[in-house]
Amino acid sequence: MSLKQLKHKKLWLSLIIVVLLVCIIFTGAGYYFFKMACVPGPKSFLSSSSDTLKKSDPLYKEKKWFKKTAKQKWYMQSADNQYKLVANYIPAASSNKTVIILPGYMDTKEDMGEYDALFHEMGYNTLTPDPRAQGKSEGKYIGYGWPEKDDVKKWINLVLKRKGSQQQIVVYGLSMGAATAMMTSGLKLPGQVKAFIEDCGYTSVKDEIEHEAEALYNMPSFPRFPLVEILSGINRIKVGYFMKDASSIKQLHKNHRPMFFIHGSHDTFVPTKMVYHNYLATKGPKQLWVAPNSKHADSFSDHPKEYRKRIASFLKDYVK
User: N or C: which end of the chain has fewer CB within 10 A?
Assistant: First the structure.
């Protein structure tokens, strides 16, 4: 082998080693961000919530009611039969109206107490599940609404089985729960499902992950690409879907039921601009309210009277 051929071989070997090292580094980073985003556990980017109830809280009355109210525990196997799921059920006297309340990312059914109170005051039975891998429900990974949408459909069928076919059902979701509600809206559902309400949900899982990479980690276009693509590939292996396929917008294109969209005007966690894309996507009757000056998931606490009034006004046209 000549000296020139030897140098050429060494160059190619060096390039292969560099490419392999880069691939290893990016794959390792992808696994790190997958663990941060999709594996349950403490999250540094989430504010810790306090169990202490203060009278200064604008939703003090609702939260106090929830703490004192007896809850039934409902159990169900997840749609894929892998996990045992649990929910709080709070009946309203002789009501034929039930709302299924879907918590946000890393939230539990207990974190949604003020929303139970809100709908119970309107005469609704409330069923509030812990999503898979959150609260007391089993699960390995947070699905951002995509696998959870099939669990919601199963919860709907369980309500009808236990409470009768005369039940009128509303699906309400907050943040990740809102995306879950929108994703559920594109499924084939029983006619008893009358309406959906989503508060600050994202357009797709990939859109939200890309936004968080930029907003939380100040990550520029590179290395955001290809890191998000690697993360999505890992998610496909572990959770069963590519993140771009988990789209609220695509599901809303298949929805013809009424949908009420709520979003805070100052939401930077799920950017306010996303609600306009979601609103335009749905095919059914729809309303939109952008709550003035509210940050992520704060619309109810910032505007309790207006929030209640707008939801009641929306639902009276579709749930009798």
Answer: N
Rounded Cα distance between 103 and 295, Å, is: 17
Report the alpha-carbon distance of residue 17 to residue 183 in Å, rounded.
43
Sign of torsion over alpha carbons 276, 189, 78, 238: negative
For residue 45, CA distances in Å to 37, 105, 133, 263 come to: 10, 12, 18, 20
Mean pLDDT, range 154-173, rounded to an integer: 97
> Which of 45, 85, 75 is CA-nearest to residue 214?
45
Nearest to 79 by CA among 140, 155, 6: 155
Q: Express each pLDDT in 240-256 by its tens digit.
A: 999 999 999 999 999 99
Q: Give the tokens for residue 287.
A: 């309303």
- CB of 127 closer than 8 Å to CB of 87: yes
Q: Per residue in 258-281, pLDDT tens?
A: 999 999 999 999 999 999 999 999
**What's the per-residue H, E or C state across the chain?**
CCHHHHHHHHHHHHHHHHHHHHHHHHHHHHHHHHHHHHCCCCCCCCCCCCCCCCCCCCCHHHHHHHHHCCCEEEEEECCCCCCEEEEEEECCCCCCEEEEEECCCCCCHHHHHHHHHHHHHCCCEEEEECCCCCCCCCCCCCCCCCCHHHHHHHHHHHHHHHHCCCCEEEEEEECHHHHHHHHHHCCCCCCCEEEEEEECCCCEHHHHHHHHHHHHHCCCHHHHHHHHHHHHHHHHHHCCCCHHHCEHHHHHCCCCCCEEEEEECCCCCCCCHHHHHHHHHCCCCEEEEEECCCCCCCHHHHCHHHHHHHHHHHHCCCCC
296, 265 contact by CB (below 8 A): no
Q: CA 292 to CA 274: how far, in whole Å?
A: 16
